[in-house]
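To close the section, here is one more complete example, presented without commentary so you can practise reading it yourself. The ligand is glutaric acid.
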Amino acid sequence: MSQIKEKYEIYPMYIDGSWVGEEQGSFTKVTNPATGMVIGAIPTGGTTEAKQAVDAAHRAFKTWSKKTAEERSHLLMKWHRLIDENKEELAKLMTLEQGKPLKEALGEMDYANGFISWYAEEGKRIYGETIPASQPNKRILVRKEPVGVVAAITPWNFPAAMITRKVAPALAAGCTTVIKPATQTPLTALKLAELAHEAGIPKGVLNVVTGKSSEIGEAWLKDPRVTKITFTGSTEVGKTLMRNAAENVKKVSLELGGNAPFIVMDDANLQKAAVGLVQSKFRNAGQTCICTNRIYVHEKVAEEFTVLFKKELEKLKVGNGLDEGIDIGPLIDRDALEKVKMLVDDATKNGGKVVFSGEQPTELEGFYYAPTILSGITDDMACMKEEIFGPIAPISTFKTEEEVIERANNSVYGLAAYVYTENLSRSFRITEALEYGIIGLNDALPSAVQVPFGGYKESGLGREGGHFGIEEFLEVKYISIGLEL
Ligand SMILES: NC(=O)C1=CN([C@@H]2O[C@H](COP(=O)(O)OP(=O)(O)OC[C@H]3O[C@@H](n4cnc5c(N)ncnc54)[C@H](OP(=O)(O)O)[C@@H]3O)[C@@H](O)[C@H]2O)C=CC1
Ligand SMILES: O=C(O)CCCC(=O)O
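Output:
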């Protein structure tokens, strides 16, 4: 292990305002998925560090929660300014550890930072209520208070935005936070913590622990001082966290997997739908929970649509995200690559056809998979049932509106769905019938800081973003007052 220390730069954890773990014996390497090269290492923290972080966050809560919203807003805006000033460096770091093209990483930095400025403002609008009482000598006041110490566990696909979408509303509400970034992408998180420190966010308010996820998660779930857990990642891990959170009835927000249908009706603007499908399917190489998974095209327009879609795909360039002109970077790791290969094999063995496969950068060592269109797909194939998280586009056809609604809803997931149609009444019929939390109607990029992001069914619990997102970090207290009148 000491060899790791000698060979690679160590990025320590951030606990109670200090950088810790550089001296400890165990480290985990961080790899660039575009080249397979190690770019640094992080301390492999566990129960001890998880507990230290909660100790710090719990101490800090006493003073942070008592600051005025204005004071917290001021510090959040300082953090926002520093992130903005350092966004090129942050984006480059993100591309190095995550693989997404630099232009997407820059886009993510703006998106991520948008949550900070938005919640710096929204924190000032945490209003209470007065409620008319049933007796003349009573008054009822309702106030909202921060839930306490929040544990945030985040994934590798959006190394900055998934942190700020949780941490910015939590801090604005007066909560303090302990964060566990994904092992594949901890460096962006640690850089964000460095800038929070520089901005003057007090020690203990924001802590980042890296290392053994199950140990860290368990320590936080068992600790009654952690009153809220907010998670983005796989449905499987989300269910485990929810089960264990029941032990001391923690509040839980979960943003989990998806299986987004993309529906193209026979009256759709097909060119617009083809461009939209490229955006929705291939953003982050298909590794987004709201990425299109299943494509349903009306049988009357399927051939014409596939030609247009293929033309758009031919324009995409696969390669190292740091290189100029790259549209699709590598997948996150070898497991992800193997899964995508398995899904294509399963489809072709069962009657599906590869009708387009883009150019693969054979000279690179990374985990690349070229954009691929599959046709002749049926709903029983693995690529239609599982979350693909990769650049393959399985196309199936349908005959009627009723049929496609039923097939689109036939999933345990309910995160995002996309519909392309030019008919107003049909737009309402379909969007209202879809059992999904996010609908893109003639729109492939519905994400924004001010919207309620979250899913139905096994896609999660709660909403992130917008005014909905801050409610997840607030308790409601009412005070019933008896008066002598
Ligand atoms: N909804 C979404 O945005 C995402 C969905 N996914 C889906 O999940 C699949 C698997 O991806 P994967 O990275 O394995 O996702 P995971 O759900 O395993 O990881 C997400 C986060 O949870 C942490 N984690 C994992 N196990 C535990 C645990 N027992 N207790 C506490 N924290 C835990 C991880 O830490 P560590 O990295 O250290 O293990 C990471 O920080 C993907 O292929 C995709 O289908 C994945 C990422 C995001
Ligand atoms: O995959 C995710 O969970 C991140 C969502 C990205 C977005 O907000 O669009």
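Once you have examined the tokens, check your reading against these statements. Residues 453 and 464 are 5 Å apart (CA to CA). The first strand starts at residue 13 and ends at 15.
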